[in-house]
Every structure is written in structure tokens, then in C-alpha cells.
Amino acid sequence: MNAKRGFASDNNSGVHSDIIKAIQEVNSGHTIGYGSDKYTEKALQKFKQIFGKYTETYFVFTGTAANVLGLSAVTKSYHSIICAETAHINEDECGAPEKFTGCKVLTAETPDGKLTPDLIKKHLYGFDFEHHSQPKIISITQATEMGTVYKPDEIKQITDFAHKNKMLVHMDGARISNAAVSLNLPFKAFTTDVGLDILSFGGTKNGMMYGEAVVFFNSNLAPDFKYIRKQGMQLASKMRFIGAQFLAFFENDLWKKNAKHSNEMAQYLVSKVKNIPAVKITQPVEANGVFAIVPKQIISELQKEFFFYMWDENKSEVRWMTSFDTTKEDVDQFAEKLKALL
Length: 342
Description:
By secondary structure, this protein is α/β, with parallel strands linked by helices. The chain has helices at 17-25, 38-51, 63-72, 88-91, 96-101, 117-120, 152-164, 176-183, 225-231, 240-250, 254-273, 296-305, 328-341; strands at residues 56-60, 79-84, 104-108, 134-141, 168-173, 198-202, 212-216, 280-281, 289-293, 309-312, 317-321. Strand 5, helix 8 (176-183) and strand 6 (198-202) form a beta-alpha-beta unit. Helix 1 packs across helix 10, helix 8 (176-183) packs across helix 11 (254-273) and helix 12 (296-305) runs antiparallel to helix 13 (328-341). It starts with 16 loop residues before the first helix and ends with a helix.
């Protein structure tokens, strides 16, 4: 029997049936390994259709690998990487970016998870000074770890600012599908068209079993990335099972249907709890994350039935994430339990 669906993470959800079907369909016979199969080749062409013919895409297993290897490809150990304090590369990757890139990660405190040129400026000094790590890349997250979403013009301001200072911009797109649905825009409108340099494109949080992609918007940025991926232990021998998943992910806009549903479930969750006097929503709900302050004494009891994560213990702030398989019944039961405990 499956465990009750909670609100801890979209990583906790299952795999969409269309993705399982796609894996099963390619699970017969032999095909050339390491990406030289027709499924991977077709999926890579799909990325070019979505992001532009000058882009180059490489599949990896995990989001951390996509972030770390993408950053590794364009940095040297004396560089620094600037990100929001809440960024996954700062908070949730166990120091992997520093370990594998050798770079210093510099953070900016943000009220909503979103960087701005003004917030980045404090780290832009010491250029060409050998005693100081050299600012090289700005990493933003879309949708952010706070559940907010950058608008295209906000990203364009950052990329223009970065390029003016001879820097690059990376996007952690673990929840990029949720952002696209929130914006009601194609992926290209807030990546290629606004001057992004590198993208970690996520599928796992939106119905895939595993598989992420590193997208370079200029092939000259990473001419040797295939070697970096191999050394980074992310070259899949049976890559057809990643390629097939991405084909199913994009076919009939499955990515959009999944993300639309998870976003709608977040809005439904807000509608059920926002008027409870003891609950305070702390961030705009623009994707599939809901942040709220709730009485500390009820948290552990609520977690027993519907697991979720504490976000800020000092403020008694929690994070509730919805998924492509979250149902209204899940939300209704959760809201009723919350009200009962209060």
C-alpha cells in the first residue's frame, strides 16, 4: 500500500504513467550505449527546437550534477559564483559546488529568493586583483526556492548586468516547468531570448523517474563538456532511458500538464488555509510551493500524518510543496487536520 501523499517535496511524488510507459517501450532489444541511440538523439534535437539551434544539451542523472558540472565547465578554481542565500547550490548540495569547481560561493540575502543587480553588486570588486577570487558567474533559480518566479525582464536585467561585467549567468531550472506555466510563456522566452548562458533543466520534480539536462546557449562555452561529464560520473551507459523519458515529457505537453496541476494544487492549498487565523502565508505563491508560519506546537503532530519540512525554525515557518499527483482530497484532508490541531 502506498504511503499517504504529503507536502514535503515534489521529489517525493511517483513517476507519471506516461514516463513509465516510455521506459517500457524502449526496454527491448539492444541499442548503442552512451547516447548514440535514436531516442537520445531525437530528445537532443527536441531541446534544440525548444531553446534554439545554437544550443548544446547533455543529459545527466541528477540536479546537483547538472548544476555542479555546468558550473565546472565555465569556471576555474580562482573564480567565484554568486547566488541567493537560499539557492540550492548554497544550501542543499553538501558543498559539492565548492568541492568540484574549487570556486568560492558568494551569497546575497533576498526577501523572496530572487537576485537583482543591486543585490549582486556588493560582490563585484577585486577584478584583476590576484588576492581576490574573481567573480565569474551569477546563478539564479527558476522557480526560486521560495516558490517565486522571475519575470523575463528581471532575468534580462541580470544577464545584461553580468555580461557588462564579463560574467555569465546560470539558471538552476529544477522547477523550470512550474515557472513556465506560472508565466504562461515558452521556455525560450525566459532563457534563450533574455541572454541566459547555462541552464540546468529539471525533469525529476515534474513526473520523470530521473534525468536532468545541462543546456549551453553558446556551444563555445563548453567544447569539452563531454569529458567533464564523464569525469563527473554522469555519462549514462544506457542513456536511451533518459532520452525516452524526455521525449515523453515533451510529447503532448506532458511537462505543462504536470506543472499546471501542481501549481493549481498549491493555489488550492492556499485557498484552504489562508483564512485560518493562526496561519500566515509568507511568500507569493507563484509556482508549487507554499510558505507559511504556523504555531510551533502543532507542527510535529501534523508532520506525522502529512510529512513536510520546516523552513525556518526561528520563525516557525514551514514549506508545503505540491506535486503533479497531489489531489484535492489530499489538500482537503491536510487542511482539516490542520484546523483540528488548531
